[in-house]
């Protein structure tokens, strides 16, 4: 039987979590944290990487992942996180063997460079292979009928490509009307369009990532693909109270008061120069807080669950990843 713990979550019944976001927003980090959160309490979760960057291995401080499922972490309360870096070439050979019994031919094609040629002239086929491998993991069962994985998390391509990547049925329509390729694409779409799938968007509280999130959500809706939640990553905490922020933004901070504070702290040397630098930094901080508030308000209009992850001042290490997973669980994301 699957090992499932009782918990309150916004995504009961969802087994495929697709994570996308604009480049630079921390998409892979959030996908890894979500996998840890979903595995907590004794569940088995597979984290799939499809872009060949080995970002998962770096996050979990392990060697580069081969094309096989490997355990990379133990979640809180005993759950297990496995990871798979999908290699397009290996996946295509596996695909040829599965549907055409052409494993030897596939390896020969690889040596001749035909694999690259095929996936270049028919990029829709590449996406079918990548999404198909993930969909197979979602559907895989043990002999007793229980699912091998309680959930699968895909670290997917960026927002600008996510609709085309997931809408594989449309992408292969010009390649195959019938046959194994078409059947495989249809199987993928049954998984992707089902209530068992949710596409989550990662964003920063900055204008371009938020706009790409809004556009990406609308594009998914236009083709009938399931939108999940919005995960706001790396939110900067306010360092000043509301009154001080307003004064800093308006350039009205009391320089003399700052100087007195510096001297009281024993920083008498160049106190006036330091005060000017601090006032400038406070003004920058106030502008950032105003930007965050404005972009957060834009996101608030979306009818989808939202989760906020803090900026980790020391960067993301393994301990920080567990902290982010805890934050997602506390907010009901897993």
Automatic annotation (TrEMBL):
Q: This protein's superkingdom?
A: Bacteria
Q: Name one Pfam family in it.
A: ArsA_ATPase
Q: Which residues form the ArsA/GET3 Anion-transporting ATPase-like domain?
A: 16-183
List the molecular function annotations (GO) for this entry. ATP binding; ATP hydrolysis activity
Q: Which PANTHER family match?
A: ARSENICAL PUMP-DRIVING ATPASE ARSENITE-TRANSLOCATING ATPASE (PTHR10803), ATPASE RV3679-RELATED (PTHR10803:SF31)
Protein name as it appears in the record? Anion-transporting ATPase
> What taxonomic ancestry is recorded?
Bacteria, Bacillati, Actinomycetota, Actinomycetes, Streptosporangiales
